[in-house]
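Risk register update: the risk of archive-format incompatibility is retired. Evidence:
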Amino acid sequence: MKKKRRILIVDDEKPTVDSLDLLLGDSFELVVAKDGRDALSRLRSEPVDLVFLDITLPELDGFEVLRQIKALDPTVDVVMLTADDKARSAMRAMELGAFHYITKPFDKDEILLMTRRVLEKKSMAEEIVSLRDDVQQLDDSHPMVGRDPKLKEILKIISKVALTDSTVLITGESGTGKELVARAIHYQSSRKNRPFKAINCGAIPENLLESELFGHERGAFTGALERKIGKFEMAQGGTLFLDEISAMKETLQVKLLRVLQEQEIERVGSIKVLPIDVRIVAATNGNLRKMVETGQFREDLYYRVKVVHIHLPPLRDRQGDILILAEHYLRQFSKKFNKPASGFSEEAKSTLQDYNWPGNIRELKNVVERAVVLMEGPCIQKAHLPLDLAVPRGEFTEYREPFSFKEILDDYERKVILNILEYSEWNQSKAAEILGIHRNTLLAKLDALQIDVKQLKQSSDHKSLV
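Archived output:
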């Protein structure tokens, strides 16, 4: 059920309050304050979408109340009500930040029109903020591109879990696309037209994370100069993605558990309980089960967040999708940088295919973007790829015992030097420069490792002619 917008009426005249209740009471949640101090107290304890404020009030007049409302929360829209239709009063109200000015006795259509205009403006502003976040994080770099059976199974789970409000835990190495899976769940769900908000629990200091999640009231702590709305309230009706939930300390784990159980929050520095309707999707690249066993993560919270578990495989376990993803990113970045590209050379394809991709899909995306920036012709060559991709990654020969540590080091050093020589087109001076050693040192190593550069270069030239 969609939550009603909350309207605060600040007026000490019962006929005015009754009239507004008759007009708006069925469609909105109305809160009434009889004076300015009561109004300000209510604004400090609960969020309000619109204020109808009488100018003539006991103790604090409407202008002073308006000034303090705007100091408390500049985003709250205020419509002034008064029997005085003087232009001077209207101008003063607008200068202090009022949205509009209505004279009494007011016309019911004018009230309804003004309410609609204010709330449409507020909805549009909220949507713009939400879309701005989405545009920053969601482009056509979708990780769910490929033919791997493991990926197809994940897509099936996403389509099923999206139809529910179940809490989801996504696990996998860094760069496997956990947030984009969370977004896929959100945008296939009934919440797709409501906000998707994300927060990295490991990137925010513990003392600030609580405020980021739950918000805070003005004066709640040193530096809290105004009220702050937290991610839970921002995501109302939608989805909140808690990335790296394993980094959350126990005090916050307890609070999160309560939110999941009670569906309500309290801002820091407030005793007001705020009901929320937010779906939680959490993610981690750590082992939560092991953290539960060692007492670092609460067991009750673990089972709360792991109602549905989706594990994303590393890219090295999706060998058949590496080139498919690379081509996908090539199309994306060639369009972005206006550099038409026909594809990858066979050498470049082999290099991409053979690499271990410790940074997973994120690393592949960055590698392709770099290659597109550097490319000069229509095809990405091996030379456009980072040197890291050409260096061997611990793929050692199977030695028969007994073998020495020196044999292993020599084997690895031989592979590194051969890769650098091939990369530098057998130019020994350039290879030495890349390796950060003197050319004479390289020559000595070539001699010790029995590497015949001349013969290898002739063999390479012959292959390129065939």
